[in-house]
Write a structure and sequence with these properties.
One of its GO terms (molecular function) is metalloendopeptidase activity. The chain is mainly alpha-helical. It contains four helices and no strands. The chain has a domain of 36 residues.
Amino acid sequence: MQSTPKTADHEAAPTSNPRYCNTPACQRTAADLPSNLPPNYADLDPCSSFKELACNGWRLKHEPKPGQHRISTTTLIQDRSNGIIREIGEDPLPTGIDPSSLDAQNFYKMKAIYNSYMDVDP
């Protein structure tokens, strides 16, 4: 078994079986897996209904938006990133930052760039 690099999220955790990952990241992933199974997963034969077993629960949780032909983890990450960028670009200077500081100057430059991209005529 290849060793996992020790980062804050992948710190080696004590386990009775070294073949199993017991890090916080693995625990979160394992806890999320059942929520991606279809409601009737116990009735499905993985040998004959693998695609339904592996994909239908996820599809039920992630409906495409109107006009969106397909959805994937990549589009979900892109949507989340766009939302974060939009929030940062449209929000005012965060409280606690001195308006005359270099951080504030950089923030306003970033907002100017964001606004120039958003200032598009239909």
